[in-house]
Amino acid sequence: MEREAIQEDESGRLEPSVTEMIQRAKRRRLLDREASVRLGIMRHVYIILDLSQAMSEQDLKPTRQICTLKILEDFIQEFHDQNPISQLGIITTQNKVAKRHSELSNNPQRHLDCIKKLRELPARGEPSLQNSLEVALSSLRHLPPHTSREILIIFAALTTCDPGEIAATLQKVKDANIRVSVVGLAAELHVCKEISKDTGGSFSVSINDLHLKELIHEHLEPPPASVKMDHTLIKVGFPHQINADAKPALCMWHLFPLKHFDEIVAEEISTKHCYGCLKQFTGCTADKRVYVCRTCKQVFCFNCDIFLHETVHSCPGCASNPTISQFNSN
Amino acid sequence: MAGDGCLLVMVVDLHPQLAEQESNVHNYLSACISFANIHLAANVKNTLAVIAANHLETRFLYPQITGKTVDRQKDGRLELLCQVDESIERELRNMIVPDPKADQTESLISGAIGRGLLYIKRQETEDVLGKKVHARILVVKISLDTGSQYLNYINTYLTAQKISTPLDVCVIGSDCGLLQQGADISGGYYHCVQEVSELLQCLILMYQADVVTRKKLNVPPPDSVDYRAACFCHRTLVDMGNVCSNCLSVYCKAVPLCTTCNVIFQTDRPLMKIVKKKK
Question: Which fold has domain B7-214?
């Protein structure tokens, strides 16, 4: 946030201006998500983590390694929450070799144990992009063709030590329809940028720990499905009953996203309270704008708007309207 | 925990089918109101919200948008309880309508649960000290289930699970599989009573205890929850189904084309590929 952008209001207070900015930022993130794009929800993601000498730098506190692993811990939890039918795996690279530390699986505990072990591992040597891509490739290429295959590289070094021509590996990655994204900790590298560009992934370099977290967490959302992806019918067994520990996981909201609400100035409408939480619109900055569902025309406050779109994914106004809820089900 | 108090959000079903027997209505409503009173009286810090749902709308019975001032104490009763009763009674009169055509409909319970979740969320954000609000939702349901709100239900269940709010369900008459799943997912209780006359007893015995106290109590062993999905083509429950890799629609037989998302399935090609690679 820029200092100049903050303005005092008539009474000389800064708080309303800041509140408004926070609200803007939150909502922009919502609007960025494009609705009605075919998403690859059956994801197989390998995280390639650089554990070379460069990870022991202290520009992220306490060290790059500890900071990144902490962020990954949160990421793994969230990833399995939001992508219940997806799988993660972890590969590290140091001393010019790549090693698979945890196989593709959808058990978050296994990955968290792995992260814990990686904390103890000293960061040393040079990383090898080619070797780590080959390791990921060796298991991703055998997956059924209807799944989304992805690699997320977290790279701190400015060099890579490869045994052969990396362009050949890159071609193989491309042929296997794998999407490679790179998050850099230090600076932009040409090779990383090329890889992500060629495979349709994203490339970014973090400026600090918060930014790094944001960049990594961007990969929680399933990416748009690749056009080359096949579609198949998968045989699935449904249990008559399950034991209490195994919670069923569902990922419906990626399939039926909630449409954005319209932003309206609170003074222009007659409704003076939020339909969801009964909050009264008092005219303070937080309530200056209210949000109207396009389908059921009910009015919601800012917090409810964010909560509905980020967590609930269905509108209680529409669900409380017999005509709309009937129509949606058909 | 005991000192913190707890927020109870009651979702009460007011489907016209309730009115088929005059005595039912009275017993049902008085059980719900009594339970609300018990909850408030049990701890000074306990708070309450009551949302009603029928086949046409959902409505907050308590609290009211216009925060009415507490009346003066009447006949020795606690002012708050008096206010709750009055508020609920007033809104109930506006909401209960005899509708003979309502037989084939179900109450909009999922909408009411959704509003309840938003209400809980607001209490959490408004709490200045950032204290965790111990909230739970209780659904009392009497009408039949048609499965038309499936998606809304599932969304509310997952939200309840995410904000760790148990969703208790007490149904009257026949079992409701969908709500049973909700209770199971969010860690609440599910129970089915046969008669309206048993309702109050059941509510007090099973649903009055807060989350911490519950761990120390024995409950009737839960029934097994049926997690089978209904196929999209015939609406029958399937043990083994075919699922579209693109949109996850469930089919009971192998079909060449997904009717939900219109993709054509490559029936044999991908299988061949895998077999070849294995060799």
Answer: Rossmann fold (3.40.50)
